[in-house]
Automatic annotation (TrEMBL):
Its EC number is 2.8.1.7. Its cofactor is pyridoxal 5'-phosphate. Residues 4-365 form the Aminotransferase class V domain. Belongs to the class-V pyridoxal-phosphate-dependent aminotransferase family. NifS/IscS subfamily. The lineage of its organism: Bacteria, Bacillati, Bacillota, Bacilli, Bacillales. This is cysteine desulfurase. It catalyses: (sulfur carrier)-H + L-cysteine = (sulfur carrier)-SH + L-alanine. It comes from Allobacillus halotolerans. Signal peptide: none annotated. Keywords: Iron, Iron-sulfur, Metal-binding, Pyridoxal phosphate, Transferase. Pfam families: Aminotran_5 (PF00266).
Length: 385
């Protein structure tokens, strides 16, 4: 059966050149980068090169990159690291209701430790306002964490403007840039951030590796204790295979970023045009201006999302909804709930389609036709009047 993968925001496959690089490293280099002999030095060289590449990609210094097991760990290190090191200056933290669980859940843990966390709302298009951050700021606010691009809607948040406002405040500013990194050229100085998280498996690199950018002036409480690796910010022998693959993925990204963006733009336009041509009844979640073209979050009125996802899967199409499905009941997406409220149908009938470098226009056409076919079956009167 033909299979179409449209869930690149969840994860991407390994780029063939990344795989090639990793195969070579697997066969050749196995020294521990902390060892001083020649085997160790070979690995250290690869580690240093990867760190330089990662730093360069966000306009940062070599020493500001901390390799982690992915963005979940990078977010945890940023959140607990700041909270525990700066609690003497205050115990108030600001974030948003639309963050990934890798931010929301650590924040909830901090609440249990006596921190006060403000979870800011967003507007109907899924964007937090600079004014809302300003209003929430207090003298005892020590930390603000706001994602750059939302993983469910593709909506970009005004990080530069928020960072600008925070320059005169003691609060340390972190952004989860996982979904942005593969699309826009990020620069930590232009973004005005102190900390930034990235994950390799969203940019055609291997899973289980990522980094936290840390401005050299920011002190973090150590979270993992052990050896001296990552200048003690993250003890443990480095995941060298992952790091080698990640470096290659970054190199390719830097080379191809603009072409990839153009490709995603073309695909999302084709997708929307296809829905219109087939008179499919739908609403876009989010708005076009601040929207990243690789993610389309679409509501199909009248549809029951679990049934729809199952039907798409039977047709070979892999997509996702933000809703978690537990024991037959749907737990609606916290992101769509923040945008539309608890009662809006969109939180129950929306699907996320996300595109990648291998997605073809023909696959988009196939997907749109199958959507139409499934809707005709599930909802005979679904088309626009
Ligand atoms: C916005 C965002 N933050 C964090 C993560 C977690 O990244 P990782 O899988 O590298 O732990 C993801 C992955 O889905 C994400 O989309």
């Amino acid at each position: 059966m033909k299979r179409v993968y449209l869930d690149y925001a969840a994860t991407t496959p390994l780029h063939p050149e990344v795989k090639q690089e990793m195969m070579e490293a697997l066969e050749g280099t196995y020294g521990n980068p902390s060892s001083i002999h020649s085997f160790g030095r070979e690995s250290r060289k690869l580690l240093d090169e990867a760190r330089s590449e990662a730093a360069r990609s966000i306009g940062a210094d070599f020493s500001s990159i901390i390799f982690t097991s992915g963005a979940t760990e990078a977010n945890n290190l940023a959140i607990f690291g700041v909270a525990r090191a700066h609690a003497h200056k205050g115990k108030h933290i600001i974030t948003t209701q639309i963050e990934h669980h890798a931010v929301l859940h650590p924040m909830e843990e901090l609440e249990k430790e006596g921190f006060e966390v403000t979870f800011l709302p967003v507007d109907e298009s899924g964007v937090v306002s600079v004014e809302a951050v300003e209003e929430a700021l207090r003298p005892d606010t020590i930390f603000v964490s706001i994602m750059r691009v939302n993983n469910e809607t593709g909506m970009q948040q005004p990080i530069e403007a928020i960072g600008e406002r925070l320059k005169e405040h003691q609060a340390i500013f972190h952004t989860d840039a996982v979904q942005a990194y593969g699309l826009e050229k990020l620069d930590v100085t232009a973004l005005n951030v102190d900390l930034l998280s990235v994950s390799s498996h969203k940019i055609y690199g291997p899973k289980g590796i990522g980094f936290l950018y840390r401005n050299d002036d920011i002190h973090l409480a150590q979270q993992i204790f052990g050896g001296e690796q990552e200048r003690k910010w993250r003890s443990g022998t480095e995941n060298m295979l992952g790091i080698v693959g990640f470096k290659k993925a970054i190199e390719l990204l830097e080379k191809e970023r603009e072409d990839r963006m153009t490709h995603y733009q073309r695909l999302s336009e084709k997708f929307i045009a296809g829905l219109n041509e087939l008179s499919i009844d739908y609403h876009m979640n989010g708005k076009k201006e601040e929207h990243m073209p690789n993610i389309l979050n679409i509501s199909f009125p009248g549809v029951e999302v679990e049934m729809f996802l199952t039907n798409l899967d039977l047709e070979g199409i892999a997509v996702s909804s933000g809703s978690a499905c537990t024991a037959g009941s749907i737990d609606p997406s916290h992101v769509l709930k923040a945008m539309y409220g608890e009662k809006n149908d969109r939180i129950y009938n929306s699907i996320r389609f996300s595109f990648g470098i291998e997605t073809s226009e023909e696959e988009i056409q196939f997907c749109v036709e199958r959507i139409s076919k499934i809707l005709n079956r599930l909802l005979p009167n679904h088309t626009r009047g």
